[in-house]
Input
Amino acid sequence: MELLVAIMVGVLVAASVHLMLARNVLRFLFGLILISNAANLTIFVSGRLTPEAPPLIHEGTDAPLQTVANALPQALVLTAIVIGFGLFAFALALVYRTYQNLGTLNSDEMRLAEPKGEVGK
Amino acid sequence: MSWILAAPIIIPFATAVLAFLFRRGPEGRWLSVAGSAGLLIASGFLMAEVLREGVVAAQMGQWAAPFGITLVADLLSAVMVVITGITGLAVAIYALADVDEAKETLGFHALYQVLLAGVCGAFLTGDLFNLYVWFEVMLISSFGLLILGGKREQLDGGIKYVTLNLVSTILFLSAVGLLYGMTGTLNMADLHGAVQQVDNPGLLIVIAIMFMIAFGVKAAVFPLFFWLPASYHTPAFAVSAIFAGLLTKVGVYSLIRVFTLIFTTDVAYTHTILLWVAGFTMVTGVLGAAAMNDFRRILSFHIISQIGYMILGLALFTPLAIVGAVFYIVHHIIVKANLFLVAGVARRIAGSTDLSAIGGLYKTAPLLGLLFLIPAFSLAGFPPLSGFWAKYVLVKASLDAEAYWIAAVALIVGLLTIYSMTKIWGAAFWKPHPEGLSPKLTALTARDRAALLVPIASLAILTCIIGFFPEPFVVFAERSAEQLLDPTEYVVAVLGEMPDIATDPADVAQLEAVE
Output
């Protein structure tokens, strides 16, 4: 089970690196979304996968009776997903606004803050 | 006890809410100043407590460590929070004159206070995942501050800043996940013991390198610094100053924390990499600065070369070197923020930050010249200012460690720093103004003049105090270095006792059994 998820993480990272190498900023952003999901899955797997065992404690006991899923990585992943969602919403808005103002999504053409040929003037 | 630790985080958050509610009136900016003053006072209490009691720790929500979130302050954390309070207050006062009403209505002061809260949180947390959360708090507010105003240059710089920082964040998150998978804990004090039990040291080094890269992007070290000179010269001057002072230093702090507390299992390997990184960071930063022709862009590249000195202290990993790193961070935050504030005043009265478009400031505004010279000389390492002692300790430490080449690099970079400071001095202060203007400080209204110059003068005086009376600061840095190199006190403060090594493999075995 862990092996399958690990392979999936690998495929996700490979796809996202391919996207992030593009000059188009929007593609880069899509790559970033993929790789953040790969990171979330990494945390999820590192808590070990235990199928069909929800982390519930029976009434009247202090601890689960049998081996259950590790709840902590799930909490971490939830936090990371929420934070990531906010960041990507911001990043998408920023890319859209940049496209409106600069008229390009090609990162090679974004040289306003660091104009070419200025060095050594 | 726990209030003392939580106050530096709660005060800026509360101020942020109030400042956002009053963002349309003049109350907002005064709330921001009051909140920053409150933060400085709270950090003073925290420092007094840490000096009296040693490392203080508190468990949030009464969940015992290592299961709950721990806030912990040793001397390094405490001094970083105090410096955050000082720079925070100085820049908040400066922002009274520097930030226009349009930006205030958009929520400048609220974002600014959230940034301070994020920085303080990162300094005070004792949990790696919580550190990630504080990084995000810091990051999202810095995104907002960076592009506030929406000029085309800002959007351009913003894209690079946002994308590269998000990549580093994701790397950090993956490293946290993998480290949890290996050790079963994310509490930093608990990790100190847990990493010694790991039966696969090679994998641990891989994770250490992932942390090094993730924090390296934040700290802007070679070859990961490209987002910094692309963006730091675009926003309002108050924003540039607080970014330059604090943000990269959070990365340096995290590197110091993680590579003195957790990843000390193979110092010969990890810290040698850090040493090379430090050397290249110093050289590339200062050469970049020498090639630039804009006040703020020169200063941005100088941030990078100065980060190299701090990493150098960590990389040598001797008591004296750590003393140098701690001293350097404290000195650098004050000086660097101050130089950006001076650049803002020069822009206000002379009309530009492009060195070829301004001039004549020495003749018409000699006070500003003096206020520039103090931090500039300090940055370059002139005795008796604070930078001299910081560099002296680091060079002495590298000579003691027989790392002669890095000592030579540090000295040459210091010389080149003087070169580019002279370049700013010659172009902005000595040569006549190209358009024949005579920029005067009296051109500003009395209120603006006070708001702009009081923080600059205060920070300059602080630099002089550190320079003329370095002994208490060095003694403090020595105590801090002792705590960093022998984390027993830190671990005991968080966990209540040094973990019994014999019981730990059982925990690991239990985790394996779950699998």
Remarks:
- Chain A has one domain: 2-48+69-106.
- The helical segments of chain A are 2-20, 25-46, 71-102.
- The domain at 2-48+69-106 of chain A is CATH 1.10.287.3510 (Helix Hairpins).
